[in-house]
Each structure stands twice: as C-alpha cells, then as structure tokens.
C-alpha cells in the first residue's frame, strides 16, 4: 500500500512540476527568444488549419468537436507540455542519480531488493 502512495505522490509531484516548467518555458521563450515562440505558434496554426483537420468527412457534430479540440492553442499547449515533461523527467533522473552517488549503501550491506509491486 505504501508503494502505491509513493507512486501517486511521485506522479502528482511530476504533474505539478510539469505545469510550472511549462509556464516557465513560455515566459522564457517570449522574453528571450520570441522568434521561436512565433515559429512554434505558426506551426500550430498551420497544423490546425489543414483542410483534413478542419473539415472531416463526418456529420456536423464531429466537425464541431474537431474545430473545438484541434486549434492552435491546444496544439501549442500539448507541445509545450511535452517539452516541459521531458525536462522534468530529466531533472528527476539527474537528482535521483546524484542522490544515489551521495548516499551509497554501507559497506557489507546488501542492496535492497525491489518489491514486485514497486513502480520505480
């Protein structure tokens, strides 16, 4: 049960950090490299306005759903969130490795075996 709580805690921590890093990336890109921000926004606009995306060959309800969900803001948000998640995962990997280097097992102590229920 503690393993499940630990996994949920790690997942929620990563979600919160991803949100913060995504906002931080948007602010940094606008402040220091606005051309990259505009280029990514243009790509999202181009992708959202493709005829295949905007006019599916279904009924009007599906057309409305596609137009609502496939727009430049959604695409930009997804791309930014994926980049932020990559950064968060790399930070967790880096700090986890540094923690293992700084806190090695005691000499003569057998390394802990992972539980079969462990997620990490």
Description:
The protein has 120 residues and is mainly α. It has one domain. It has 5 helices and no strands. The protein has helices at residues 2-32, 34-48, 51-54, 60-69, 72-102. The longest helix has 31 residues, at 2-32. The two termini are 14 Å apart. The model has no long low-confidence stretch (mean pLDDT 76).
What topology emerges from the helices and strands here?
Layout: H1 2-32, H2 34-48, H3 51-54, H4 60-69, H5 72-102
Descriptive key words:
single chain; 120 residues; mainly alpha; 5 helices; 76% helix; 0% strand
The SSE order reads HHHHH
The count of helical stretches stands at 5
Number of domains: 1
Distance between the termini: 14 Å
- Unreliable stretches, pLDDT < 50, 5 or more residues? none
Q: Structural class of the secondary elements?
A: mainly alpha
Anisotropy-based shape: elongated
Arithmetic mean pLDDT: 76
* Sheet with most strands: none
| Rg over C-alpha atoms, rounded to the nearest angstrom | 21 Å
- The proportion of strand residues reads under 5%
Helical amount: over 70%
Number of strands: 0
Give a summary of the structure in a few sentences.
The chain is an all-alpha fold.
């Amino acid at each position: 049960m503690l393993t499940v709580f630990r996994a949920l805690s790690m997942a929620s921590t990563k979600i919160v950090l991803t949100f913060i890093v995504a906002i931080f990336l948007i602010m940094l890109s606008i402040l220091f490299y606005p051309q990259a921000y505009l280029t990514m926004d243009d790509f999202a606009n181009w992708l959202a306005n493709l005829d295949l995306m905007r006019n599916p060959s279904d009924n009007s309800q599906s057309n409305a759903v596609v137009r609502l969900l496939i727009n430049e803001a959604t695409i930009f948000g997804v791309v930014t969130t994926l980049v932020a998640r990559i950064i968060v995962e790399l930070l967790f990997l880096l700090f986890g490795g540094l923690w293992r280097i700084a806190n090695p097992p005691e000499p003569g102590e057998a390394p802990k075996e992972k539980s079969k229920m462990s997620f990490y």
